[in-house]
Amino acid sequence: MIRGFSLRVILAGFTLALLLLASSNYEVLADDYNCTGTLGSITVDNLNVPQNATCILNGTQVEGNLFVRSNATLYAYAVQVDGNIQANLSARVEVHPDSLVGGDIQVDDSGSLLVSGVQIDGDLQAFRNTGGVSITGNTIDNNLQCVDNDPPPTGGDNYVGGDMEGQCANLQSGDPPPGAIDLEAPVVRWIAPVLVGEQYTLREGESVLIEVEASDNDAIAQVTFLRWDAVHELYVTLGILDMPPFHIEIDASTLNPNWNQVFVFASDLAGNKSDIPFIWIYKLVQGEMGNLIYLPMVRK
To answer: Considering the domain boundaries, does residue 205 fall inside one?
Structure first.
């Protein structure tokens, strides 16, 4: 009796598991899968769209790579691809909003390409396609690269964490997505009264306008001018500006006799700081050059 009861319990549990699996809306398919029709919310390892086939994906998860073969067509809606989407000699590739690609999207020597509203953790590469390329409203963590597409790519409002290259260099950029981490430092460059590392001479009673250009992939928060006071061995802030033009006027009376090393750096909204280039301003004492020489400080 005990042995029979145990068997009935095992069979009942097995039957229940089968019923639960059959009623589930989310199916898991092992190994590679050839798509020649429509797939919904299933999970596959690698997915292949065979030559001349048309594949429509809606909410499908691909745990590996997705390949689109010669003269094949892919329509992907709200998909998740953990690896790459790769197409060569394909007829058409479309990846629509709410899709996530963990690797790259690479479409070469193919017909048309449309990528819209997609999160791409790698690169988006479109090379030598002839049916039209549309790239709009995507978040691309690495690079957007377009070469020899005819007609040239269209679109815009793409946030690109790396570089926009080739034919896509002039597509309009988009804003960073909410919560995006900006690690790119701003750039600052001396333009007046001399260039970086050069010397400007100032006399008593005179003033000089010092000016830099500053740029960033997002926005400049502020530009800070300061000088090294070699007599008292401390940094003196000359001015902090939060909008261009980034220039201030310095009066000779505020400087030490002889050598003054003047620094500048820019900060962006994410808190990244630029390099800190400097110039020399030499204040003449009674119209004569002094003998005192200060070694350059390296601002950290």
So the answer is: yes
pLDDT digits (tens, 9 = 90+) for 112-134: 999 999 999 999 999 999 999 99
User: Which pair of tokens denotes residue 103?
Assistant: 């690797």
Answer left, alpha or beta for residue 89, where phi above 0 means left and psi between -120 and 50 means alpha.
Answer: left
User: Are 166 and 28 within one domain?
Assistant: yes
Query: How many residues are recorded in the chain?
Result: 300
| Phi-psi domain of 10 (left: phi exceeds 0; alpha: psi -120 through 50; beta: other) | alpha
What span, in angstroms and rounded, lies between the C-alpha atoms of 17 and 271? 54
Check if the beta carbon of residue 242 is closer than 8 Å to that of residue 222. Answer: yes
- Residue span of the structural domain in which 66 resides: 23-173
Burial class (CB within 10 angstroms; exposed 0-12, middle 13-18, buried 19+) of 137: middle
Do 96 and 226 lie in a common domain? no
User: Strand 54-58 and strand 154-160: pairing?
Assistant: unpaired
pTM confidence score = 0.57
Is the same domain home to 164 and 38?
yes
The domain tally of the chain equals 2
